[in-house]
Amino acid sequence: MSPPAPFTSAAVADTLERIRARTPLVHNITNIVVANSTANALLAIGASPAMVEAEDEVAQLVPLAAALVVNVGTLTVPQAAAIARATHAARLSGTPWILDPVAVGVLDFRSRVALDCLADAPRAIRGNASEIMALAHLRGAGGDAPPPGRGVDSLSGAAEALPAARSLARATGACVAVSGATDHITDGPRVATVANGHPMMTRVTGLGCTATAIAGACLAVGDDAMAACAHAMVLIGLAGELAARIAPGPGSLQVAILDMLYRLDRQAVMEHARIAPLEP
Amino acid sequence: MSPPAPFTSAAVADTLERIRARTPLVHNITNIVVANSTANALLAIGASPAMVEAEDEVAQLVPLAAALVVNVGTLTVPQAAAIARATHAARLSGTPWILDPVAVGVLDFRSRVALDCLADAPRAIRGNASEIMALAHLRGAGGDAPPPGRGVDSLSGAAEALPAARSLARATGACVAVSGATDHITDGPRVATVANGHPMMTRVTGLGCTATAIAGACLAVGDDAMAACAHAMVLIGLAGELAARIAPGPGSLQVAILDMLYRLDRQAVMEHARIAPLEP
Amino acid sequence: MSPPAPFTSAAVADTLERIRARTPLVHNITNIVVANSTANALLAIGASPAMVEAEDEVAQLVPLAAALVVNVGTLTVPQAAAIARATHAARLSGTPWILDPVAVGVLDFRSRVALDCLADAPRAIRGNASEIMALAHLRGAGGDAPPPGRGVDSLSGAAEALPAARSLARATGACVAVSGATDHITDGPRVATVANGHPMMTRVTGLGCTATAIAGACLAVGDDAMAACAHAMVLIGLAGELAARIAPGPGSLQVAILDMLYRLDRQAVMEHARIAPLEP
Questions:
Q1: Pick from A35, A114, A115, B244: CA 20 to 30 A from residue B201's CA?
Q2: Residues 218-257 of C with CB under 8 A from A
Q3: Tell me: the pLDDT tens digits for C240-278?
Q4: Is A222 among the annotated ligand-binding positions?
């Protein structure tokens, strides 16, 4: 039987089952706000997280990892050095890696660090519309500078950032995922949309970072980076919308999302995934 | 209609509604224990948190922020440098800022850092009795050295620290909030008390830090720093006591507090706030 | 009445009640993933946590603390310096301390740091089988190098690591606790086993770190380090298995474990503890 088309519920379910079967080691260099919730999300979905950021250690761990996740949310000077070592090691070892450019475009230091590590060929980039537009602009990949974001909030919608995302994908070779009410994922030629999720998710810190980490787990078990990113957006969005059915507020939602990531199965994915290729 | 008197339920409800309407950007330089729970509390109540501490970045973010929260709970040498840059930038840009002097008086390094940044004119200071008494003593603002605290626990009650708090407020120009079973808030001449809260809250880490962060959000939307601090003590205390009605233990309490911060409304505040000016 | 034998339910209950009566100050130098959950676990069981890692501050806090917990999970260069200062101070002041050698044997930097601090006479060491086998091998305490672990996962069972654990205990004078489906605890001559716990606990990040922190609290109130470690394994394991009865997934489990640590009492311990000396 041939595999399902990449942007279908069946393909998402296959990815989920591969994560569960392989428990890929996902190395995270991430921020102090989400280190706990990201590790828990990766464990809940069936991956094996490692949070390691000493400069000497990242070079040693990256080649052992099935994927690397780089998140600049609470960047420091030593962490920037560790990121440079890690992404360089990933390029050499062929470990797929994904960048989360938190608040890039607002703060110069992290903008420079994010731009620099693009030279190490990330397999994917996930951010909100403001972040992706800013990174595309910094990379010289067309488009105007976006309206400046405000911290980690985006002032633009995901669809608005699609031209910038396509340009950034073409310039870097990475798949680019733009989160929003409807997520847009592109590798340049192709575009897919994911419409899972719930508005209350914006009141829980770091669910974007969690989406990026889950995309790392999906990259670890699949060769099509764009499919991996789209599947990750379904998995976190679906966990969020199922959790929102029972959560009276964002505290409960954060907890229930971990429960749902753990309990998600083929049937739930087949029933609720809203993923589709976007006709050009 | 004239605005309600500052230390009334109606004034607290107005502050809450202003936060929800404006979603102020609250910049936090905080500790690794509470980064997640503080960000979630700010999101739950309707603010927009940013946790940023690279020295170069704080100078850039502070002028964009509606308030700055400085917490020395897990202070490091680079963080101390970032704090100095941030509070200096806050003074220059007029961004209101609040200090949480965690364990000041117990540990010399953080005591020195906290004392130094008082020169940058914090709008408010929130701590427990031991911390406030120690900081007042360090500042030369009268009073004996307090009985040494033990880590983050206070060995004294809030009322006992009121003279030190008044002196510290007069010496620095900041409003000073002392947390306890009954919180005492003063700007020197005025004193208000808040009697919301629940004893189980002392078994959840970082709820004092959360109170400080929420005070940052209140400072961002109000001109009267003392009213802002008092309103914040009501909001977190009220969330805690409503949460304690349904929480069988401190794990559930931490989650339910976030839900309650999200669900608090004018009616709940009008019904349950216990805030009053203290007659001299 | 003479005290109960060390590896009995009654002795565990006594330790729990001593923690509640004394609220020992437990100083943690730990990782960014578990700082919040560890502090909350210590508060829930009745101890008083302090997370402090500035190099100058650790030297000042260690002599005031009733126990020190050292965890190398997200080790950095400055943290390694702070650990060296802290363990040295603990040796001088007689503060009992415990090492959690997270991922030692996989990453050279932390392996060296963990090995170095053994010179400061830890009272206890807690890890999984891979970590304990690796540390014993590094210490030259007999045994072959273990099959390399993979991040924080152990590829071996606790019983398999018992010979290495005994050698490590004899070489260092520390009690060594090996976590697994059945925990094995040894001081060299003696061995005890603890069979509390639940498989879903492996899907929550940092429960091993929490076990180590609770062992710190137990060390703070008891003279028999091996009994302290065994009692801690019962307390966290029992909280986990009671929590698993009501938790539909790992998010809920993390929350319910804190509730259960808070609610554990003599009766629950007497009824459910599964602790026993292992006959030689």
A1: A35
A2: 247-252, 254-255
A3: 999 999 999 999 999 999 999 999 999 999 999 999 999
A4: no
The answer to whether the CB of A273 falls within 8 A of the CB of A238 is yes
The mean per-residue pLDDT over the stretch B27-46 comes to: 97
Minimal Cβ distance to A258: which of C37, C77, C249: C249
**Which CATH fold would you assign to the domain B9-277?**
UDP-N-acetylmuramoyl-L-alanine:D-glutamate ligase (3.40.1190)
* C206 annotated among ligand-binding-site residues: yes
Q: ipTM of the predicted structure?
A: 0.95
User: With an 8 Å Cβ cutoff, is A32 touching chain B?
Assistant: yes
At residue B53's C-alpha, the angle toward residues A257 and B151, to 5°, is 80
Name subunits touching B (3+ CB pairs < 8 A).
A, C
Contact list in A for residue C254 (CB cut-off 8 A) is: 40, 255, 258
The number of C-beta contacts closer than 8 angstroms across A and C is: 102
From the number of C-beta atoms within 10 Å of its C-beta (0-12, 13-18, 19+), residue B170 rates as: middle
**Is C152 in contact with A64 (CB distance < 8 Å)?**
no
pLDDT at C151 over 60: no
Chain C CB within 8 Å of residue B208 CB: no
Chain B residue at shortest CA distance from C254: B251
Q: Which residue has the tokens 């004193």?
A: B191
Say which amino acid occupies A194: V
Alpha-carbon gap, residue B280 to B271, rounded angstroms: 26
How many residues can be counted in chain A? 280
Instruction: Please list, in sequence order, all residues whose beta carbon lies within 8 angstroms of the beta carbon of residue A268, skipping any fewer than 6 positions away.
Output: A238, A242
Instruction: Give residue limits of the domains in chain A.
Output: 18-186+203-223
Q: How many CB atoms lie within 10 A of CB A231?
A: 36
CA distance A208 to B111: 36
Structure tokens at B144: 């004996």
B34 touches chain C (CB under 8 A): yes
Residues recorded for chain B: 280
- The CATH superfamily of A18-186+203-223 is Ribokinase (3.40.1190.20)
Nearest to A66 by CA among A25, A28, A30, A98: A25
Please give the residue of chain C at the shortest CA–CA distance from B104.
Answer: C57
How many angstroms separate the most distant Cα atoms in chain B?
50
Of the candidates A243, A235, A206, the one whose C-alpha atom is nearest the C-alpha of residue A219 is A235
**Contact yes or no for A273/A12 (Cβ under 8 A):** yes
Please indicate whether, in this complex, the C-beta atoms of B250 and C257 are within 8 angstroms of each other. Answer: no
Q: Write out chain C residues lying below 8 Å of A261, CB-based.
A: 249
Secondary structure of chain A: what % helix, strand, coil (to 5)? Answer: 55, 15, 30
pLDDT tens by residue, A102-157: 999 999 999 999 999 999 999 999 999 999 999 999 999 866 666 655 555 566 78
Chain C 45-104, residues with CB within 8 Å of chain B CB atoms: 48-57, 60-61, 64-65, 78
Backbone angles phi, psi at A141, to 5 degrees: -95, 45
Tokens at B61, concatenated: 């973010």
pLDDT score for C150: 57
Q: What residues contact residue C21 under an 8 Å CB cut-off, 6+ apart? A: none
**Partner-chain residue, chosen from C74, C151, C247, that has the shortest CB–CB distance to A53:** C74
- The reply, when asked if residue B226 is annotated as ligand binding, is no
- Residue B274 burial class via C-beta count within 10 angstroms: exposed 0-12, middle 13-18, buried 19 and up: middle
Q: How far is A251 from chain B (nearest CA, A)?
A: 5
